[in-house]
Amino acid sequence: MGIRQRLFQKENLERYLQKDSQFERTLSAIDLIALGIGAVIGTGIFILPGTVAATKAGPGIILSFVIAAIVCAVAAMCYAEFASVLPIAGSAYSYGNIVYGEMIGWIIGWALVLEYVLAVAAVAVGWAAYFNSFIAGFGLKLPKAITGSFDPAHGTYVNLVAILIVCLIAWIIDEGLKTSVRLNNIIVAVKLAIIVIFLLVGSFYVKPSNWTPFAPFGIHGIFQGAAVVFFAYLGFDAVSSSAAEVKNAKRNMPIGIIGTLIVCTVFYIMVSGVLTGMVSYKLLNVDDAVTFALQLVHQNFVAGIVSIGALAGMFTMMVTMIYSSSRLLYSIGRDGLLPSFLGQIDKHHAPKHAMLTVTVVISILGGFIPLGQLANLVNIGTLIAFTFVSFGILLLRRNPTLNKIKGFRVPFYPVLPVVSGLLCLFMMTQLSLETWVASLIWFVFGLIIYFSYGIRHSKMNQKLD
């Protein structure tokens, strides 16, 4: 078989459905929305509205979130159609294998590995910092040596709290999906309740004069703000990784994906409005904008509760991302592009080896490596996946077999999928040169793995030889 045929051979949906049948379908639409909210509403809602308002959009941050939501909405509808027609594990990676072919599928999967693993590692470091600040309020302090990445010159050797929180979440998920989803749903409810408390308390301190001027940096500033806050929505795509474990996936997957986006958009807009109404946007360029605003109006007790909300927000984000990354790694191992032990399902209907591998990698990154600007790589990994999924709808509809499957359909086809893909490409142009260089290195490394291992061990190509 020729190299071109190997690279672009398309996967068969029936084989995926047969392999993924080992999973237990237990998730409802409400579970999916809770997973999505858990991933999307993290530290972003407590930090991003303040810094973006102060430096780019002013009170116009409200419109920035609306614009970003529109961009995400069109991508979300493309994800919803794929998840409805192809109820399989692996999210955009598996979709890519079916409509584009194996090599493109690998590139999408490698981009998602970058997104999920780095996102969790970065948030684990943030969670550890918040936790250390939280216990400091009770007069407790961990030894400096175990509170930061490996940096002997500054007296830190390992971020122990970051490692422990990752291992704890992985253990909870591994104990059983029902238990971990139930816990996630409870914490998401607590987190949303804390945000509602902020909105109720903060609304009493809103001064309409703080909303003037509404767009101090002009329309350009609002669009710049949209490019930044766009990344506050990243994570809803992780919902599609759970498709193989969803009851009535054709109905529930679109509800889960689009429902997540609607709920998160409403909360982002309300928090931005109250925050910029409480305090002049000029004062909000701080790391803890919501807490800062409450302290400024002498609501220190509520500010403390919001700090707990930030910890809860980061916790649920890590739950969703660790869960999704283990299912992604399982999917790649299932296809033989990475060692096949990753694609095994244990007696508890869980990919134990994939979960263990993900946990080790994230723990090393979060515990020992200073992430810094690497966190920006999360954005480019996601946008690459968004782009392929958007344009992939055109190929999905042209496939006579797949087009017969009834499920959610993107409206205004083919205009909306094309617009979605172009908007994602535009967002990529807003990323820094350093991000592009680092991502290029990552993808070169990924192609080396594919051509040295993946293409020779591919289950699809072995079947055709």
How many strand segments?
0
What class do helices, strands and sheet pairing give?
A: mainly alpha
Taking Cα atoms only, what radius of gyration do you get, to the nearest Å?
A: 22 Å
**SSE order, one letter for each helix or strand:** HHHHHHHHHHHHHHHHHHH
Report strand %: under 5%
Report mean pLDDT, rounded to a whole number.
Answer: 83
Low-confidence stretches: none
Label the overall shape.
globular
Helical stretch tally: 19
Q: Main beta sheet: strand number and arrangement?
A: none
- What is the end-to-end distance? 7 Å
Helix content: over 70%
Blueprint (SSEs and pairs):
Layout: H1 3-8, H2 13-20, H3 29-40, H4 44-57, H5 61-85, H6 91-99, H7 102-136, H8 160-175, H9 177-203, H10 218-229, H11 249-278, H12 289-296, H13 300-334, H14 352-368, H15 377-398, H16 400-403, H17 415-429, H18 433-457, H19 459-464
